[in-house]
Specification:
It contains 12 helices and 17 strands. With 386 residues, the protein is an alpha/beta fold. The protein folds into 3 domains: 45 residues, LysM domain (Membrane-bound Lytic Murein Transglycosylase D, Chain A), CATH 3.10.350; 265 residues, TIM Barrel, CATH 3.20.20.80; 49 residues, Chitinase A, domain 3 (Roll), CATH 3.10.50.10. The protein has an 8-stranded parallel barrel, surrounded by 6 helices. Helix 5 packs across helix 7.
Length: 386
């Protein structure tokens, strides 16, 4: 695959002729819509004959995973599953009695679809309260109260066995600092329970850069202890740019690298999955802290907005992320998203440091160019996670 940056005067037909490839392949790879307009600065993924590695070149193995809600569009799911090793079903909460609370929509079809493609369906465990928010009191009770913990472990084993899951992913956030060690012990206990079934346990980690990083997202997550307790971890290397924050890249590569380099001082590379965002944000300007709110958009949608508004896409070389500005109905906007250039940089980190793989939050929107680029850069490891 090759990445081409659109220049003034370009069209799909002209690019196809220059590279001697079918126009339909450009349209397909990049999910272009008729009449196939392009934005200056848009990054296109091209399938160019002769650009593939020679047959004797061995690509590195990776384990790609993606989070999905049970209401994912079936077509999007089927387009995505061939590129995954694991599908993280989001999510199962629990009560103060240790009873699991399943998703509101039946997840059986999602589990069955994953298995049909040889992908491991993973139960994602979250401490959501009745309002759908992370609840650190619920976490404290689960990791400190032996009877609650045992009930939760028993229910996890029963549910994984009954529903056909092949592992558990623990996504707890806002853990109290005093629960740092009990939480790591809890992850180890879940792992021991899953290992009796032959399945792994993973844990999601907020993006720390030091042992002493302050803040409720970070102080309860001990990278060394959790790296020892879990079979593998997910670095949640996204949300620098977020809904209520100022406009900036969602996953700036310079910041992502800092997290990876810190993680590698505590956790073996073979246990680390890099978090990758499959979305962007559209901020109204001017940004006002406390009242401004960005709109979540897909990566394909971001390009369509740039085309509709007739503005060029720019690229921040430090963050290695695309962005653009536009004005609509008198309101200025700033958009940051992911494209094949920014994803190529993240894949480069996975290869450079020999990481286990990557985890996508989330796969509800199809970004086909990402998956084609992934398959071109790596060999996707089969489902043998035990």
């Amino acid at each position: 695959m090759e990445i081409y940056i659109v220049r003034p005067g370009d069209s799909v037909d002209r690019i196809a002729a220059a590279y001697q490839i079918p126009p339909d392949s450009i349209i397909y790879n990049n999910q272009l819509t008729y009449p196939y307009p392009l934005a200056i600065g848009q990054a296109l993924l091209l399938s160019v004959p002769g650009s593939q590695p020679a047959p004797d070149v061995t690509l590195p193995f990776v384990y790609p995973g993606g989070y999905a809600y049970p209401f994912i569009d079936q077509w999007v799911l089927e387009q995505t599953l061939p590129y995954l090793s694991s599908l993280y079903v989001f999510s199962y909460g629990f009560t103060l009695e240790g009873t699991l609370v399943p998703p509101q929509i039946d997840d059986a079809p999602l589990i069955a679809a994953a298995k049909a493609y040889g992908v491991a369906p993973i139960l994602t465990l979250t401490p959501f309260d009745d309002s759908g928010q992370f609840n650190n009191h619920l976490i404290s009770q689960a990791v400190n109260q032996g009877d609650i913990k045992q009930a939760l472990l028993d229910n996890l084993v029963a549910t994984v066995s009954a529903k056909g899951f092949e592992g558990v992913d623990i996504d707890f956030e806002y853990i109290l600092p005093e629960d740092r060690i009990p939480f790591a012990d809890f992850v180890r206990d879940v792992g021991n329970a899953m290992h009796t079934l032959g399945y792994p346990v993973s844990v999601a980690l907020a993006p720390k850069t030091s042992d002493t990083q302050t803040g409720l997202l970070y102080e309860g997550k001990d990278y060394r202890l959790l790296g020892e307790a879990a079979d593998y971890v997910l670095l949640m290397t996204y949300e620098w740019g977020y809904t209520y924050g100022p406009p900036m890249a969602v996953a700036p590569l310079n910041k992502v690298r800092e997290v990876v380099e810190y993680a590698l001082t505590k956790i073996p590379a073979s246990k680390i999955n890099l978090g990758i965002p499959n979305y962007g944000y559209d901020w109204p300007l001017p940004f006002v802290q406390g009242s401004s709110k960005a709109t979540t958009i897909g990566n394909v949608e971001a390009v369509e907005i740039a085309i509709a508004q007739g503005v060029p896409i720019q690229y921040d070389e430090t963050a290695q992320s695309p962005y653009f500005n536009y004005v609509k109905e008198g309101i200025a906007h700033e958009v940051w998203f992911e494209d094949v250039r920014s994803l190529s940089g993240k894949f480069g980190l996975v290869e450079e440091y020999g990481l286990r793989g990557m985890g996508y939050w989330q796969i509800m929107r199809l970004f086909r160019a990402n998956w084609l680029l992934l398959a071109d850069a790596f060999t996707i490891h089969p489902n043998n996670l035990t």
